[in-house]
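URGENT: need a sanity check before tomorrow's submission.

F., can you look over the Methylisocitrate lyase record below? I want to be sure the sequence and structure line up before it goes out.
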Amino acid sequence: MTGLMAAATSAADKRVALRNGLASGKIQRLPGAFNPLVATLVQQLGFEGVYVSGAVVSAELSLPDIGLTTLTEVTERGRQIARVTDLPVLIDADTGFGEPMSAARTLTFLEDAGLAGCHIEDQVNPKRCGHLDGKAVVPADDMVRRLRAAVSARRDENFVICARTDARGIEGLDAAVDRAKAYADAGADMIFTEALADASEFAKFRAAVDIPLLANMTEFGKSELISAGELENLGFNAVIYPVTTLRLAMFAVEQGLAEIAATGTQSGLLDRMQHRKRLYELLDYQRYNDFDSGIFNFTLSE
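Structure tokens as predicted:
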């Protein structure tokens, strides 16, 4: 149950929940939320966590996912989302926004913002979207230094540090496995291998690595779309759907705007909109009214 103006669950408890979920044998499903309202809906629909995608934070700013966003921009969006949900929030921290000392500073920012975990990747700066060609990865030793710096800066031992490797599409699957093992040895709590091709590659990764694994089920990318149940059977601990909600929303918005441009009215779109009544339910208007009717004495009407 969320609090009135912020989550009732503390950041520390959310981090414990994420740790426990990763150890539970049940896959943790983390849809991407492009704003706090979407995170509220994710919680209401019974998911185990929320994900904040760096690609989505970039896209919301009308920027490509090529490392243009800053630590403060990403942290603030993470803070806004984490404060409204009782679910643990995992955030994309790109390459740590710099070299090892920057990765350490990034970790402190994300902890202070109430996030439950983050992932840091082994791409060079500036990074690229994980499902684009033309990526480059740093030497594994450089990424190990990044990770060790982040781990050393962590103050809450339950904050989850996930290491992402983009080596699969550059150096091959075996090299990605070797990197994952090195990253686990460096203190990573979970491994995220970007752009695995199909279930057999997910299975091979699970057989080779003995810490929690995260799968990325992004649409229109290089990975086959595999159900949460099948990923759980393959031994994966978590799955993210990073851009799904943004893609759904932007498709609907574009179609709606095109109709208004063509017809001059939104009257034909009403059955494709969230009703005001449903929005008010999500925003919990009635509880605000009940909070202090001497101050908030509005009535809900259609």
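My own read: Residues 180 and 200 are 17 Å apart (CA to CA). Residues 244-263 form the longest helix (20 residues). If you see anything odd, call me.
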